[in-house]
């Protein structure tokens, strides 16, 4: 069999490949040219100028008409300058350098403006002209490259031949050279006749990734259903919890608020409610560590201990991530389908919410401070279709005249007076006087039980580092006040994170964070429910300014202000979390990761009623001060 002789000419297929490469190069050059600004076009534009014995100002007018530049100058400095110009296909730099030679005038290009001025005495030193060229690694010139003097806003762009010219009075100039698709390069000119800059390609393939807590995988390799939220997409007002901030950001995620009180925990459902008796809460993972609920037992066990106060206690304890400062969050990934159980087991059947916190960034130390302040007006009766005291008395009068009984009104309000008059316990005059008082009382319960609340949130962080080690520390303070008087929360948070790389293959990360919060709330009372349902004809204070008591439905004296003053629910929660992680890059395709963590949580809840409350009166079966101290009944 004969061998096929090589003719020395490329095959047709090779010519097609070469032609395709040439077309691609031409395409990218055209794209790069299109990205040059109007000022760069004008600077690189080649002009024809034919003027004889004219003023410099006429030359400037001609240049303004042919370019996009705007000239600025003092007329008195250029009025005596006469020039003759006969130039073809020259740049504006060439024309100005020719016209201003031996005149004592210089020009500076700043964006799309050219400033012409006379040299000052202190600037009479030699004007240096820096010439350079920018190429790629193959030696091809790069047009439209930005060449900026470091530390200033002064710069130029290369022409179609990759060349640039820059004027300066300095003997040494540092330039920052940048171009789309190329790595930014810093070069220094020290008097060279031609400064040559070679830029390298910066081709990177961007891939979306999914953080599962234990590993980071490419999104296209992830079989399960996930959702991703960046920190900047979260609206954090300082009065919201992280759960509330996530509401509406994750498809299918539901956040249920049991009440509008500050400091209460929210119920989160990622995959709906899958059980009636067990927990339907998702698994929270922060920096690869599963977060445990601060309650050391199931809420059903707490119900058996104290059925009356169960909801109150467990609602103010806080959730698994109540210690986390939302301003320290980098991103959040939600694993929503059953495939997450392969990582976290059956506990992940309700979904997994993976949180990554912010780490230090290399560079000089940066300090960031942000604050949020909010003013919330109290509730009022203006926009509520609720009866005032006179309307309420009219309803009670109509009910009484028609033989109807309105429950609690039997012992208070108009019906209480009417029944007392019917039993001849009071006179007609006393009855009429009492009705007039009821009609004019018009007690504003919202004014007594609510306030215009002011809440504020402050966060400060410090970050920096080098190529080998980075650090970040943050501190946060949050003071949230509810419009309901007596419901407040104060929280302090701190976080320190250190990351270091050794031998370019081993990376250590150490994190320490802590928080403490104190929440004050109500016990056994609902200010909003009371204000919207209580008869406004009733008084809060008597003529002497003391609390006005009336018989409640349980038969004992009651005044809501007295109840709130003599009862409370206070909860203090402290958390400390430490984690250590190591990543060893054994090979480019083989990594070893390990994480150690320690967490400590302490919750102290205190609920009390004093002897002056209606709650205690029901227990001992007589009102406060109804029995003399020292008696047998006492």
3D architecture notes:
The chain is α+β, with helices and mostly antiparallel strands and 634 residues long. 22% of the residues lie in helices and 35% in strands. It has 16 helices and 30 strands. The longest helix is centred in the N-terminal third of the chain and has 23 residues, at 12-34. It is elongated and about 120 Å long.
Note the main attributes of this structure:
634 residues; alpha+beta; Phage tail protein beta-alpha-beta fold; Immunoglobulin-like; Ferric Hydroxamate Uptake Protein, Chain A, domain 1; 7-stranded antiparallel β-sheet; 5-stranded mixed β-sheet; 22% helix; disordered N terminus
Distance between the termini: 124 Å
Proportion in β-strands: 35-45%
Gross CATH architecture of one domain? Beta Complex
Residue windows where pLDDT falls under 50 for at least 5 positions: 1-13, 25-39, 303-311
**Secondary structure: number of strands:** 30
Number of helices: 16
How is the main sheet built? 7 strands, antiparallel
Structural class: alpha+beta
What is the highest CATH level, the class of one domain? Answer: Mainly Beta
């Amino acid at each position: 069999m004969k061998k096929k002789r090589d003719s020395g000419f490329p095959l047709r297929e090779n010519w097609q490949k070469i032609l395709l490469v040439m077309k691609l190069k031409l395409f990218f050059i055209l794209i790069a040219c299109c990205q040059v600004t109007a000022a760069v076009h004008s600077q690189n534009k080649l002009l024809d100028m034919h003027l004889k014995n004219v003023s410099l100002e006429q030359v400037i007018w001609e240049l303004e008409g042919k370019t996009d530049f705007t000239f600025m100058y003092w007329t008195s400095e250029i009025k005596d300058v006469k020039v003759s110009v006969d130039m073809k296909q020259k740049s504006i730099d060439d024309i100005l350098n020719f016209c201003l030679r031996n005149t004592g005038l210089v020009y500076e290009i700043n964006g799309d403006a050219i400033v012409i001025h006379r040299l000052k005495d202190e600037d009479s030193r030699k004007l240096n002209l820096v010439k350079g060229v920018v190429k790629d690694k193959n030696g091809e010139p790069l047009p439209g490259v930005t060449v900026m003097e470091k530390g200033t806003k002064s710069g130029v762009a290369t022409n179609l031949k990759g060349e640039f010219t820059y004027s300066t009075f300095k003997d040494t100039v540092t330039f920052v050279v940048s171009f789309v698709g190329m790595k930014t390069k810093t070069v220094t000119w020290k008097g060279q006749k031609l400064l040559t800059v070679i830029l390298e390609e910066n081709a990177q393939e961007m891939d979306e990734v999914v953080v599962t807590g234990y590993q980071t995988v490419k999104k296209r390799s992830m079989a399960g259903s996930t959702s991703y939220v960046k920190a900047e997409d979260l609206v954090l007002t300082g009065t919201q919890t992280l759960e509330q901030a996530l509401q509406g950001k994750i498809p299918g995620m539901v956040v249920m608020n049991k009440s509008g009180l500050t400091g209460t925990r929210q119920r989160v459902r990622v995959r709906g409610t899958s059980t009636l008796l067990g927990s339907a809460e998702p698994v929270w993972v922060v920096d690869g560590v599963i977060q445990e609920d601060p309650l050391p037992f199931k809420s059903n066990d707490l119900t058996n201990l104290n059925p009356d106060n169960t909801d109150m206690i467990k609602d103010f304890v806080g959730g698994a991530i109540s210690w986390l400062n939302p301003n320290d969050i980098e991103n959040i990934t939600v694993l929503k389908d059953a495939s997450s159980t392969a990582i976290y087991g059956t506990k992940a059947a309700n979904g997994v919410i993976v949180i990554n916190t912010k780490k230090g960034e290399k560079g000089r130390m940066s300090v960031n401070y942000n604050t949020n302040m909010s003013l919330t007006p109290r509730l009022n009766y203006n926009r509520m279709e609720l009866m005032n005291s006179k309307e309420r008395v009219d309803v009670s009068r109509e009910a009484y005249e028609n033989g109807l009984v309105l429950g609690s009104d039997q012992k208070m309000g108009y019906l209480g007076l009417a029944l007392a008059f019917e039993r001849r316990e009071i006179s007609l005059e006393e009855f009429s006087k009492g009705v007039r008082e009821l009609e004019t009382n018009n007690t504003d319960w919202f004014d007594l039980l609510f306030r215009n609340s002011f809440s504020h949130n402050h966060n400060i962080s410090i970050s920096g580092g080098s190529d080998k080690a980075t650090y970040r520390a943050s501190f946060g303070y949050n003071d949230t006040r509810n419009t309901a008087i007596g419901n407040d929360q104060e929280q302090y948070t701190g976080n320190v994170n250190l990351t270091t790389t050794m031998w370019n293959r081993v990376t250590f990360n150490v994190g320490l964070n802590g928080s403490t919060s104190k929440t004050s709330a109500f016990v056994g009372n609902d200010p909003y429910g009371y204000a919207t349902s209580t008869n406004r004809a009733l008084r809060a204070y008597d003529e002497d300014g003391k609390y006005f008591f009336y018989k409640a439905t349980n038969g004992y004296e009651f005044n809501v202000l007295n109840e709130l003053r003599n009862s409370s629910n206070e909860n203090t929660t402290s958390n400390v979390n430490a984690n250590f992680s190591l990543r060893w890059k054994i090979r480019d395709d083989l990594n070893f990761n390990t994480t150690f963590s320690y967490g400590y949580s302490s919750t102290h809840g205190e609920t009390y009623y004093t002897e002056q409350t209606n709650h205690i009166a029901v227990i001992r079966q007589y009102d406060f001060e109804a029995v003399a101290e020292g008696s047998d009944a006492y």
